[in-house]
Amino acid sequence: MSVQAPTRTKSMKQQQPNEPYRLDADAADAPQRVAALVDALLAANPDHPRLRFLLGGQALPAETIAGLVSGLRRLREVGGAIEVRPDSTAVRDALALTGLEHVFAFPLDPDDAPRRRHFGFATRVAAPILAVLAIIFAAIPAGARDEHTADPTAILANVEARNPSLSSYEGRLHVEIRLASFPFLRTHLDATTYYKRPANYEVVFDRVPALAKGFDKMFADVGDPAGWERRFAITYAGEQAFRGHTDLALRMVQRVRGMIDHETVLIDPSAWAIDSIRYDYYNGGHITMTQTFRVVGGYSMLAEQDAEIAIPFARAVAHGVYTDYRTNVALDDSVFTKRR
């Protein structure tokens, strides 16, 4: 049984801190109730707010997923989180198969979070294989499943949920750039890369010689997906083969248009890692960035990036290596001040 969304002044006081809100996932007004609860919580407790849901119902519609993801992003902006626990078999299976059970959790207080139920050996083994199908079907309205579309919001939520207990990091980036057209020169760049949850990402190069002007921004612009939906109009673009497996493709168009016509992002649904980003320019040029990852201190971190640049009058390749990671370190917000 679902409850009425609380008012900003009364209901938040009545709710016990560790008591979850009951919500029917397939209720028509579920997204509005989530938004109202987030509004009330932010008004009552704007510092590291926590919100728990006990989610029931016979399905987990895309609209409810989008409402929960939107609420999660708002809370993460102030260091908060949302936990969702299933209250029906349908919701339990949808959360397990899509991996959203790990998205909607309390990564900032892992010791305080209740133990999660195990859904059985078969489900754990099948989850990586079925994740793509589950996300696609969860994101399609009833009666329209033959359209083969998926919800970019749900896909990006899984990407953002990688390394849930990683609050920050600092590392070094070393880039070799080689011009494949005249004047066939080479140069080397060194930089420090910073990240701080929820959506702060910065690459600061030690120096940028004239030859490399513009190439430095290419590595910085990959950035963090937490801010993509603010910057881009994003649509699902189907599946695409990548190095022996199948990725999900997202097409991104800048809300404030510039020189780039669109970007294509390839995401590996078995790891929710960004395999590739391709930038297509209005002038016919393109830049393709591919990425690999390695485990550092228990976290999946960028290991290497390769870029192939093909723009009018210039061809180049670049190879970047990430080293010397320090995770969960104190970073001053001034690090992320935009540099001109």
Outline the structure in words.
The protein has 340 residues and is α+β, with helices and mostly antiparallel strands. The protein folds into two domains: 150 residues; 169 residues, Lipoprotein localisation LolA/LolB/LppX (outer membrane lipoprotein receptor (LolB), chain A), CATH 2.50.20.10. The protein is 26% helix and 36% strand. The protein is built from nine helices and 13 strands. The longest helix has 18 residues.
Write the H/E string, N to C.
HEHEHEHHHHEEEHHEEEEEEE
Q: Helix content range of the residues, please?
A: 25-40%
Mean pLDDT: 77
Number of domains: 2
C-alpha geometry: globular
How many strands? 13
Q: Which segments are poorly predicted (pLDDT under 50) over 5 or more consecutive residues?
A: 1-14, 108-149
Give the gist of this structure.
26% of the residues lie in helices and 36% in strands. The protein is built from 9 helices and 13 strands. The termini are far apart.
What labels describe this entry?
10-stranded antiparallel sheet; outer membrane lipoprotein receptor (LolB), chain A; single chain; 340 residues; 3-stranded parallel sheet; 13 strands; alpha+beta; globular; disordered N terminus
Blueprint (SSEs and pairs):
Blueprint: H1 11-14, E1 21-24, H2 30-44, E2 50-56, H3 62-76, E3 81-86, H4 89-98, H5 100-103, H6 121-138, H7 152-160, E4 168-179, E5 186-196, E6 200-205, H8 215-222, H9 228-231, E7 232-242, E8 245-254, E9 260-268, E10 273-281, E11 286-296, E12 299-311, E13 314-327
Parallel strand pairs: 1-2, 2-3
Antiparallel strand pairs: 4-5, 4-13, 5-6, 7-8, 8-9, 9-10, 10-11, 11-12, 12-13
Helix pairs in contact: 2-3, 4-6
